[in-house]
Automatic annotation (TrEMBL):
Enzyme class name: hydrolase
Span of domain Metallo-beta-lactamase: 44-236
SMART domains per record: Lactamase_B (SM00849)
Superkingdom, natural source: Bacteria
GO molecular function, one term: phosphoribosyl 1,2-cyclic phosphate phosphodiesterase activity
Assigned keywords, A-Z: Hydrolase
Protein name as catalogued: Phosphoribosyl 1,2-cyclic phosphodiesterase
InterPro entries in UniProt: Metallo-B-lactamas, RibonucZ/Hydroxyglut_hydro
Protein's gene: phnP
CDD domains in the record: metallo-hydrolase-like_MBL-fold
Enzyme Commission identifier(s): 3.1.4.55
Classification lineage: Bacteria, Pseudomonadati, Planctomycetota, Planctomycetia, Pirellulales
Length: 266
């Protein structure tokens, strides 16, 4: 049995990353937010980690995954659920390679069919029958995910259908009274019904200006005011929104998220 150095995060929902697809600061940019010394303005790619009764559930494997888990002192992930297959939510998958050594079995990945297709294309080496040595490729167990509630790691995880632009569907997730809805600019009526009675809504709010595939700030505020959760936290934020400056303009009960933010599960 290997000794695993890891912090116990049971009962916590952690925002591992709150940035847009290129992160903040953005490469080559000299704007005030990218040059900011406020640590809240340093945003890695959007993902989250949930400490459930029987293990750690990761939402998405973004390209900053290794750094994010090291920062939070979390040494193991027990399962992964995916919102969608875009690179900023998927391409850190190889960082899962160590976890099967600790688990004693391939790490389970729960995803819809388009995500599975992307994984099998982009990480084809993980599915070769022969490898040069043990640990050369991540050991994965891909499992289908639909809109039915999922019993996972001692909790109920409810997938939520969201729209990411006019023709692209993604998933959000509800665990207890916390919902995570990144990469969306439209929440269908059936999903709005599933988002009633929340304590915390984590929602996409890219920038002040409208965008074709993401909520802007005013649109995210409108959703929050319709659902009326006790608390709303923005994620998938670009470099046009400074943390402190934007927070000062938001209505009560609505706030900017930040990397490493920990929210108690309810």
């Amino acid at each position: 049995m290997k000794t695993i150095l890891t912090t116990d995060i049971r009962g916590q929902f952690i925002l591992l990353g709150t940035g847009t697809s290129v992160g903040v600061p953005s490469l080559g940019c000299g704007c005030d937010v990218c040059l900011s010394t406020d640590p809240h303005d340093k945003r890695t790619r959007a993902s989250a980690l949930i400490g459930l009764p029987e293990g750690n559930l990761l939402i998405d494997t973004g390209p900053d995954l290794r750094f994010q888990l090291l920062r939070e002192n979390v040494g193991i992930v027990h399962a992964v659920v995916y919102t969608h297959e875009h690179a900023d939510h998927l391409f850190g998958l190889d960082d899962l390679r160590l976890f099967p050594f600790y688990l004693g079995h391939p790490i389970p990945l729960y995803c819809e069919e388009p995500v599975e297709r992307r994984i099998r294309r982009a990480f084809d080496y993980a599915f070769h029958e022969e490898h040069t040595h043990q640990g050369a490729a991540p050991q994965l167990s891909i499992r289908p995910l639909d809109l039915e509630p999922l019993s996972l790691l001692g909790a109920e995880v409810i997938p939520l259908r969201l729209k990411h632009g006019p023709r692209f569907e993604v998933l959000g997730f509800r665990v207890g009274n916390i919902a995570y809805c990144t990469d969306t600019n439209h929440i269908p009526g059936d999903t709005m019904a599933q988002l009633q009675g929340l304590d915390v809504l984590v929602i996409d709010a890219l920038r002040w200006r409208p965008h074709v595939t993401h909520f802007c700030v005013d649109e995210a505020i409108a959703v929050a005011q319709q659902l009326r959760p006790k608390r709303t936290i923005f994620t998938h934020i670009c470099h046009e929104l400074g943390h402190a400056e934007t927070n000062a303009k938001l209505p009560p009960g609505i706030e900017m998220g930040y990397d490493g933010q920990r929210i108690p599960l309810t």
